[in-house]
Amino acid sequence: MELTILDYIVFFLFVGGAALFGCSFFFRSRRGVAAFTAAEGALPTWVGGMSIFATFVSSISFLGLPGGSYAGNWNQLVFSLSIPIAVWLAAKIFIPLYRGLNSVSAYHYLELKFGYWARAYVAVCYLLTQLARVGSILLLLAIPINTMFGWDIGTIIVVTGIITLIYSLLGGITAVMWTDAIQGIILIIGALVCAVLLTFGMPEGPAQLFEIAAEHDKFSLGSFGLALTEPTFWVVFVYGLMTNLQNYGIDQNYVQRYMTAKSTAEAVKSTLFGGLLYIPVSLVFVYIGTALFSYYTAQPDLLPEGIAGDKVFPYFIVHGLPTGVTGLVIAALFSAGMSTISTSINSSATIILTDFFKKFYRGEQSPRKQMSVLYLSSFLVGVIGIVVGLLMMKVDGILDAWWKLASIFSGGMLGLFLLGLVCHHVKRVSAVIAVVVGLVVIAWMSFLAPLHTYLTIVLGTAAIFLTGFVLTKLLK
User: Fold this and answer.
1) Which of 196, 249, 395, 454 gives a 20 to 30 Å CA spacing to 82?
2) Which pTM does this prediction carry?
3) Is the pLDDT of residue 215 over 90?
4) Are 458 and 238 in contact (CB under 8 A)?
5) Which DSSP string do the residues of 339-385 spell out, in sequence order?
6) Across residues 212-229, what is the average pLDDT?
7) Which of 8-17, 64-73, 109-118, 199-208 has the lowest mean pLDDT?
8) If 0-12 CB within 10 Å is exposed, 13-18 middle and 19+ buried, where does residue 229 land?
9) Closest CA to 23 of 185, 227, 162, 156
């Protein structure tokens, strides 16, 4: 089966409709900086929750989770099991903290604790990470779209980047979050449709799916051993805890969403809703991978030889789904990527304005001037992100290098935040030394250590926190 006119219509209807809907918020975003960066604190709770969910999900989740469970088991689901802890800590500690400071920047807190150097350091790390993120998502989204449509990968990267940039730039955070909500709904519907069709598409009925999967140990959550060189249950869980604590606790993408709620209580509700929603959705994704394994094991003639695990789901989307449904699922995949990119563009522009322009520009900082900075910053982040995506396409190994660099940046950010939260009075020299030690540990873990890469952020964050904590006690 090949893509039909109906599939193309459904695809362009959903994706184009979402983009146009985002552009419709243009006049609302022009009310000022507060509207562009925080929606004037007036977004509904359910929109905030769906936006947080969509921010967490990306095309990596949409394809990576099914691909991983198809080739392996449900080990990746362990990552999601740590989310309730991270969300609870965000609700109890981080959301009241940021709402109390009344700053749209997640890193204003670090300036209060350690001085502007800490705020600037983390802000730069964040911006570099987001540029890598935009480029990575554009490339990882373009590859399956190329497989499905046959379009040129470079063209997909450029067009996707431009479409997302336009509605992000015109509509501000309001457009980003409302389109997030719509795209999140499309994504969930697409995933559920695939899961249902696979379950009832087995030759001998749904029971056959579970029999084949159980026979091949597909429902395993991984080894419960204590090895640190393998993705055991404990390694993945601790990695998930650190990563999710970073996401919900200090990531500008999430902090900005906390500020769009009408009150702290509403921000907590939307975070709990969006965070916990990812758990059942990730379960659907890993189930799809397992269902694909059983589906093609029972009907091996339907799957051509040589298709790797991460390519099986895209193949099923194009060749195994009914007409029209294929277009819907591809739109869901595309929406997941667009949601992630638009979030990075808006949050990066916000950081450039709040953490750098307002600190260093000595001229008149009128509302009009600040809006110009937001527009220009959004444009530059989007364009540079597209260039990064194109470079990743041409250079072997650069994607892996970007991920390692992102790990270095993010590990330093989380460790410094935790140090500030636990220790009330930390000398600047202690914080600087702690960051240096932590970055050395993270770099060693990223490029030289024999331990599993999931432990990079864990050990790096621990090194920064413990070094700073000990120095604070010694240098009282």
Assistant:
1) 196
2) 0.88
3) yes
4) yes
5) HHHHHHHHHHHHHIIIIIIHHH--S---HHHHHHHHHHHHHHHHHHH
6) 92
7) 8-17
8) exposed
9) 162
Tokens of 217: 């140990």
Expressed in angstroms, the distance from the first to the final Cα of the chain is 71
Q: Residue 142: its pLDDT value, please?
A: 84
Cα–Cα distance between 453 and 101 in angstroms, integer?
Answer: 35
Distance CA 413, CA 180 (A): 26
DSSP 452: -
Rounded Cα gap, residues 201 and 334, in angstroms: 25
Q: What is the DSSP letter of 203?
A: T
Token couple for 195: 């899961």
| Nearest CA-CA partner of 166 in 336, 22, 332 | 22
- CA distance linking residue 86 with residue 71, whole number of Å: 28
Q: pLDDT by residue (tens digit) across 244-300?
A: 998 898 989 899 999 888 899 999 999 999 999 999 999 999 999 999 999 999 999
Q: Which helix (H) or strand (E) holds 188?
A: helix 153-199
Say if residues 133 and 311 touch (Cβ distance below 8 Å).
Answer: no
Strand (E) or helix (H) holding 301: none
Q: List C-alpha distances in Å: 193 to 53, 318, 325.
A: 19, 14, 8
pLDDT, position 402:
56
One-letter amino acid identity for 206? Answer: P
Tokens of residue 168, six digits: 């992000």
From CA 14, how far away is CA 409, in angstroms rounded? 35
Is residue 89's pLDDT more than 90?
Answer: yes
Secondary structure of residue 402 in the 3-state scheme: helix
